[in-house]
Write a structure and sequence with these properties.
Blueprint: E1 2-5, E2 11-14, E3 29-33, E4 38-42, E5 53-56, E6 62-65, E7 75-82, E8 87-98, E9 102-105, E10 111-114, E11 121-125, E12 130-133, E13 145-148, E14 154-157, E15 170-173, E16 184-185, H1 196-209, H2 213-223, H3 228-240
Antiparallel strand pairs: 1-2, 2-3, 3-4, 5-6, 6-7, 7-8, 9-10, 10-11, 11-12, 13-14, 14-15, 15-16
């Protein structure tokens, strides 16, 4: 299940494996009071899910986005929970379904959803219930640690890659339109895109995340054999942008 600490010291528990159905998932939502050990049930969130992204908003409401269904499919819905009333309100549809992502809240009330779908990052405007793709990470991450800095840039560290390995480095993301540059690696001297095929692939990757699917595939081909993980992420992005040559062939 996914847990989020509330402002009053209690803990919100969302989804997780079902204890009644072997291999199934629960749609149950509960609030645990650590001081008494008691739990209060809230209206369930359907469909049942595991690994959603959860964050507490400044006004005490809670946003839940994405997750993975019992069919092992990534979910693309987002919901806001009014904790005192126990009511769920739709908060729009993600640009791309994802699970094991991380949510962070900016000072302007918008939320940033990092990872869970490769290197992709989205910004959610909860006032309009819209989600927009923004600059991407340099490497795909799942279950990453995310901190919003005082200037609203987003620091991303740790997590795991799609292969289960630990992604290297720490990144600082300037959240803006999709035309914004890619995330900056904290230590420029450690940037693996400094020279050679990587140096050529860098501007192509920037064009890729600005919406040019063919550039995604060109960058991936440059990185084949040099940076397989990033090449795979770029191919997934190209396929998502309807570049058929980048999509896996059906079995």
């Amino acid at each position: 299940m996914t847990a989020a600490p509330l402002s009053d010291g209690r803990v919100l528990l969302v989804g997780g494996p079902s204890v009644r159905v072997p291999g199934g998932l629960a749609s149950a939502v509960e609030i645990l009071d650590p001081t008494t050990g008691s739990a209060t049930s809230l209206p369930p969130l359907g469909p049942a899910r595991v690994a959603p992204a959860v964050a507490v908003l400044p006004d005490g409401r809670v946003i839940v986005a994405g997750g993975r269904s019992a069919a092992r499919e990534s979910l693309g819905d987002a919901w806001i929970l009014d904790v005192p009333g126990g009511t769920w309100t739709p908060a729009g549809t993600l640009v791309r379904p994802r699970d094991d992502g991380t949510l962070a809240v900016r000072s302007d009330g918008k939320v940033v959803l990092v990872g869970g779908a490769g290197a992709e990052v989205e910004v959610g405007d909860l006032a309009t219930k819209t989600w927009t793709r923004t600059a991407a990470l340099t490497v795909g991450r799942y279950d990453a640690d995310v901190v919003v800095l005082p200037d609203d840039r987003v620091l991303v560290a740790g997590g795991r890659s799609g292969e289960g390995a630990n992604p290297p480095g720490v990144e600082i993301l300037t959240v803006g339109p999709v035309t914004a540059p890619l995330a900056a690696v904290v230590d420029p001297d450690a940037d693996p895109l400094a020279a050679g095929p990587r140096g050529v692939a860098w501007p192509l990757a920037a064009r890729c995340y600005a919406g040019q699917g063919r550039a995604c595939l060109e960058a991936a081909r440059l990185l084949d054999g040099v940076d397989p993980e990033r090449a795979r992420t770029l191919r997934e992005e190209a396929c998502f942008r309807d570049v058929e040559a980048a999509c896996p062939s059906p079995p």
